[in-house]
Fold:
Amino acid sequence: MDQVVKALAEQRRAEQRLQATRDALHEAIRAALGSGEKQVDLVRRTGYSREYIRRIAREIPLLGDDS
Structure:
């Protein structure tokens, strides 16, 4: 396998890991909101905008989505 193919494969694995950690963070944000935590507190803790927190809150996780 040449270097380009190896590098591309590693990039794809890294993107999958990033997506998995992003999904976990978004789920934790939704759980915190569901437990009564205020958006403004999550904005301070995450550095995300209030609009982005609202968008995360409205996301519906796809069941069985392993992508």
Observations:
- Residues 3-34 form the longest helix (32 residues).
